[in-house]
Amino acid sequence: MRRLVLAAMLPLTALAVFSCSSIQEPVSVPTLANVTMTVRPVRVLLGVATRAEPLMVSARSDVTVLDGDGKTVRDKVSLRKTPVGFTKKAVSLGGVDWGAPAIILVPSPGDHIQVDDTVYAGEIVLVKRGESVAVVNRVSIEDYVAGVVTCEMPSRFERAALEAQAVAARTYVLWQMKQRRLLLYDVTDDTGSQVYGGITGTTGSGKLATERTSGTVLMYNWQFLPAFYFSTCGGRTVNASYLRGAPLIEPLTGVECGYCKASKRYRWAITIPGEEIEGALGQAGYITGKLLDLSVVKAIDGGWVDTVEIKSSEGVKQISGYALRQVVGTSRLYSTNFEIEKSGDKYILRGRGYGHGVGLCQWGANGMADLGHNYVDILKHYYQGAGVLKIY
């Protein structure tokens, strides 16, 4: 039997016809024959400790401290809300200089390390970077995925939707591991990558979805798919050219979706005073004069806004719908699928969906699951042209 070490990318493809199976049984997907694969740990940036804002590390049992090369520096080290810090050239713990710019904290068997209020599986790596220390969780991919699933999707969602989320999260991090293999970390623990809550954020439904899809990924053109996902599309997902950093490939070209109507963000409207938008646009450097009008001048399939025109006392300027959403606030302007209506000195924005619009629509996935579709059906709908394959 051959043995392959999988850092983040494999020359594989999956071509198969899938069928629905009982919700009580894991869905069968193609498996690689006569190959054993090992995936290196995921490196998750948990935060940065500074003198002004140190991070605290704790463990119930003593930990072992390794240097950056993995050699034991000292075992039986007690951590009780111990502040992470640094000296001129080294990492420090509780004010003790460890004489190295990087150390690894390894928990005792059966124990885990806590960073501030969150408990994590795996090891904690501390790396001095200038006047700060990067705190990185080195964790197995399956423990990582379990810590993502219900931080990114409501735990009350249907099992098949959670399983689709698990596969998307697993595939996305493998794609990122390839992109960032030479850097300090693969992903952050927030919305910049995927929200990861460690053991503290792992729920029973998230763990079950991870276990039932263990080793299952999405692949396209012999590579891991950048499996983007978001909350609600409002009727149609958008092609990847609309999202920074997303390659324009067949599985990310956008699809019709009639499954996310249960989302409270399926349709929405917000009203914003003209003075408020004027101030936000000015602060962002888009205008210097008085705002006279704001309108959509170009939208792509499904109503996603490509270009917004700003008329001010200083002239006319165009910005992207993405830029306007950043200016207004992503938690307020829920997506870039909107229309603008001026009403007196206010602007009414009526829109659809929540999130960037590329890839898997999470509320749509739940709608499909509610109709009896399994996670493979869901993934094949939102990532059309991609293969679903169990690689370990």
How many separate structural domains? 3
So what's the overall shape? Answer: globular
Unreliable stretches, pLDDT < 50, 5 or more residues? 1-23
Side by side, the strands of the main sheet go: 6-5-10-13-14-3-15
Number of strands: 26
N/C terminus separation: 13 Å
**Approximate helicity band:** 10-25%
How many helices does DSSP assign? 7
Mind telling me the C-alpha Rg? 23 Å
Largest sheet: 7 strands, mixed
Please report which band the strand proportion falls in: under 5%, 5-15%, 15-25%, 25-35%, 35-45% or over 45%. Answer: 25-35%
Assembly annotation: single chain
Instruction: Calculate the mean pLDDT score and round it.
Output: 92
Main structural class:
alpha+beta
Describe the protein:
It is a single chain. The protein is α+β, with helices and mostly antiparallel strands. The protein folds into three domains: about 40-140, no CATH class; about 140-255 and about 355-390, no CATH class; about 265-350, no CATH class. It is built from seven helices and 26 strands. It has helices spanning about 140-150, 160-180, 205-210, 275-285, 320-330, 360-370, 375-380, and strands at about 1-5, 35-40, 40-50, 55-60, 65, 70-75, 80-85, 90-95, 95, 100-105, 115, 120, 125-130, 135-140, 185-190, 215-220, 225, 230, 265-275, 290-300, 305-310, 315-320, 340-345, 345-350, 360, 385-390. It has a seven-stranded mixed beta sheet. Strands 9-8-7-4-11-12 form a six-stranded antiparallel beta sheet, with no helix packed on it. Helix 1 packs across helix 2, helix 2 runs antiparallel to helix 6 (about 360-370) and helix 2 (about 160-180) crosses helix 7 (about 375-380). It is globular and about 70 Å long. Mean pLDDT is about 90; it is low at about 1-25.
